[in-house]
Amino acid sequence: MYKKTLIVLLATASLAPAAAKENLRPWQHLQFLSASQVASVWKNPPPEYGPEPYYGLNGHVTVQQVDRDLDTMHNLGFQAVTVQAGFGMPFTYLSPQYFAFFRKFIAAAKERHMRVWIVDDAGYPSGFAGGKFSSEKPKLRMQAIEVARKVPVEGGTSLHLSLPANTVSAAAVRDDGTAIPLPIKNEILNWTAPPGQWTVLIADHEFRTSPTRSDTNLHRVKDTTQSLEDYLNPAAAAQFLRFTHEQYKHYVGDDFGKTILGFRGDEPDYSISGLPWTPAFFARFRQIKGYDIQSYTALFAQTPSRRHPEAPIHLTPEQIQIRADYYDVFSRMFAAGFFEPQGEWCAANHLEYQVHLNHEEQEMQLTNSEGSFFRDMRTVEVPGIDAIWHQIWTDTISDYPRLASSEAHVYGKPRAFTESFAAYRPVPDVAMARYILNEQFVRGINLVEMMYFPATSSGPRPAPSFMGQPDFPDLVAYVRRMSYLMAVGHPAASVALYLPSSSMWLGDSMADTMFVSAERLLSEHQIDFDIVDEDALTRDLVAKDGSFESASGNQYHTVILPATEVISAAMLGRLQAFARGGGKVLFLGGTPEWIAGRTFRNPRVATAKDFAWAGVVNQQLPPTPTPPQFPPAVAPPPQIVSPVLLRALQTAVGAPTITLDSPDTALRVMKRRWRDADVYLFFNEGGKLSDHEVALDSDGRKIEQWNPQTGIISPLNSRHAAGNIHFRLRLQPFQTSVVVAR
Fold first, then answer.
1. Roughly how many angstroms between the first and final C-alpha of the chain, as a whole number?
2. Which terminal residue of the chain has fewer beta carbons within 10 Å of its beta carbon, N or C?
């Protein structure tokens, strides 16, 4: 049974879009082209569509070494490169000597007509500016609320403590796990303990170092010698831009939007103990939520899931709701304090901003360390994910790349990127690399960064890993064509799947489990879909003719909500109006029990009448298995779903993207629209032949197969029946096919 935990889905204040760009380049906006226009450049798409290797300037790198490496890349077929200040450079990162060398790098790339993405820091995560925050702006470093002191107290004992000025809050935890906040007045704590054995937790705010992988660390491992910026403080973001982006503008700004395509960020997150905090947090919290949270923070700064796993804290339902309010506000401040300023700066300077977060494939963990994927990415021009250590393999169910593509589709962004391969062990060969990328293409990824190509001072050498295999240039050409194909035109998914981030703020792991299983349900039944959050459903999607319309122009006729127990009144009202206008809403696993308003606290009890307008399936989806650490060759078994649930799904979805003559849980599909054609990308993820009569939901008169390996376009035999185009689709294991109906 689904865990009975209060879950509130809160509407959020609007996040300002990135500054409008002037003189947009073709790759910076959606292009609604005709099939003939696409065909004219498909064999050799523009270099801005990638792919690009990730190039680290490691060691005593020289101009001669750069020339050799760029030649190697160019000979492999790369027309773009992502460059990062590396380990052990002979000059200090962000120094005049560094930029003198970087100008030479840009000149060398320009000479070869290669495009460049600049990694925005000398390591990762983004935001420590090569150590400058620690050395030059320590007051703008990351801060957190941390339990600094524990005081054991016997029941009946009176406690009188004078507390340091940086004390934030105090709480008492009884040996049975009962937890209560304690009052502090004028930096004095007076408290008499009730019966039992108690531990008083004293929490303060302090500057934090966070694990970084910096250019000064020759061992290439994360350490805590340098601190990240305060992600929640726009003043820190402005300083980061002055430390980094503005310096690049000074030295190589003439190439912005030309040779230089944009800045690339890497995994900004709070991988720290305690609670993310900034001095303005409590005031902002009161503004948004209408109450004071400060006295509760000692309870949230030490929980079994954080620095002190032994802490036996049992939060009450109300305390859990208050903690979720904390993460709601944190996610808003992270988005506004870090991502938004960078997105606006890049837009104003004719550049794109691309970044990926940490833990995209572990949404529960992401909500704790980054708040909300969709909020963070709202002002990021090129949202991304990574697949660097077996998140994608033949034994996994990996739908999480749709997070990035869905963000792009909902907000009208043309591209979504992947950082792939860096830490795969064993290193994949070309065939396996193709599989890993195809899994992502069919989920909407269309810009590929291939890790890793480190520069050294050791002279000529073969390209690393699979880049040295004879057929690798063919893979590069394949990826460039596929990326272009998936970037032009408009997305065409008509189903929106709700991501319950706010449920996860409450610690509800079942919400995450059911969401992943719902992704799998749709994928295994060839239902193309995008993922949406509450901000999109409540505010950003436009209600139009029985649908929700995205900024990309696609219309969602169906909204599916995996099991969740509380919904906000704002979202409930919007979904109800959507359904009454002709849209379909399907709750999987039952309807919410609670309806909330401004905060997660004090929700009202929901009744059957509140959801009389919606479709409901009370049966739970089977959980998706977690893959092993080292992948075997065995694919996971198909998801077993009840006929009742399938009928409800088919009723809610209506006309499917495609129809097969027999079920095939290994076949994946994504659809896009061009001006005069429908485009279908098929991928056989399974280890067996996929052979089907396929009916396309298209009014096209003919169909063609576009081969991304060769660039050849050829006709397919087809017939028309019942308003659909029928043809034979035969895919070997792990094979793709691009079918265009026009």
1. 48
2. N
- pLDDT value for 619: 86
452 in a structural domain: yes
Q: Count how many domains the chain has.
A: 2
Q: Among residues 454, 489, 524, which one ends one of the domains?
A: 489
Q: Is 51 part of a structural domain of the chain?
A: yes
Distance, CA of 660 to CA of 51 (rounded, Å): 33
State residue 459's pLDDT score: 41
Question: How do strand 352-356 and strand 260-266 relate by DSSP bridges?
Answer: parallel
Provide the pLDDT for residue 15.
Answer: 36
For residues 42 and 335, what is the distance between their CA atoms, to the nearest angstrom? 36
Q: Does 555 fall in a domain? A: yes
**Which residues does the chain have with pLDDT short of 70?**
1-24, 303-312, 452-464, 627-634
The angle formed by the CA atoms of residues 523, 529 and 534, to the nearest 5 degrees, is 125
**Helix, strand, coil abundance in the chain, percent, nearest 5:** 30, 25, 40
One domain for residues 462 and 557: no
Residue 613 and residue 727 in one domain: yes
Report the pLDDT value the prediction gives residue 424, as an integer from 0 to 100.
81
- The Cα–Cα gap between 28 and 606 comes to 45
The residue range of the domain holding 498 is 491-741
Q: Among residues 559, 664, 563, which one has the least CA distance to residue 621?
A: 563
- Nearest CA-CA partner of 374 in 532, 496, 564, 560: 532
pLDDT of residue 29: 83
CATH code at position 712: 2.60.40.1180
The Cα 512–Cα 117 span in angstroms is: 34
Please report the pLDDT score of residue 16 as a whole number: 36
Sheet containing strand 529-532, edge to edge, reads 529-532, 495-498, 558-561, 584-588, 615-617
Tell me what pLDDT residue 734 has. Answer: 95
